[in-house]
Amino acid sequence: MIAGSGIMKIRIKKLHADATPPVYAHGAEEDAGLDLHAVERAVLTPGKAQAVPTGLAIELPPGYEAQVRPRSGMALKHSVTVNFGTIDPGYRGEIRVVMFNLGHADYIVEKGDRIAQLIVARYEAIQWEEGDLSTSERGAGGFGSSGR
């Protein structure tokens, strides 16, 4: 991270000449997610998952992950969504977006289309400590416990 700037620098590698680095649609002040673009055309058949390549690989620092998330407009307008994915800091392969067409007709992803969002987030390493849990108002109340 550049001191005082709030901007983290992450190494990225284009694996394909036409790959587009992830970008903020409205800038970092307004967007949390960076748009990921398809590097090639893909036909999404209804009911089938398909991994769409981005032509990019990244090097995340330890303690950070990248989350692949759907684009809400694509889901609402076209019934196309993506698998929420995690890119671990040790992964150096191509980012591929697992896409699902929930509609009734083929959906065409064109080369260069924005297909998902990428969120970089900090995470904490976990060490489990076995034992009794403290009580809470909710307790073991699960599905539907907070009302409709």
Explain what this protein looks like in three dimensions.
The protein has 148 residues and is mainly β. It has one domain: Deoxyuridine 5'-Triphosphate Nucleotidohydrolase, Chain A (Distorted Sandwich), CATH 2.70.40. It has one helix and eleven strands; from the N terminus they run ββββββαβββββ. The strands form four sheets. Strands 2-11-6-8 form a four-stranded antiparallel beta sheet, with no helix packed on it. Strands 4-9-7 form a three-stranded antiparallel beta sheet. It is globular, with a radius of gyration of 19 Å.
Can you give me a brief rundown of this structure?
With 148 residues, the chain is mainly β. It is 5% helix and 34% strand.
Q: Can you say what the CATH homologous superfamily is?
A: Deoxyuridine triphosphatase (dUTPase)
Number of strands: 11
Strand order of the largest sheet: 2-11-6-8
**CATH fold description:** Deoxyuridine 5'-Triphosphate Nucleotidohydrolase, Chain A
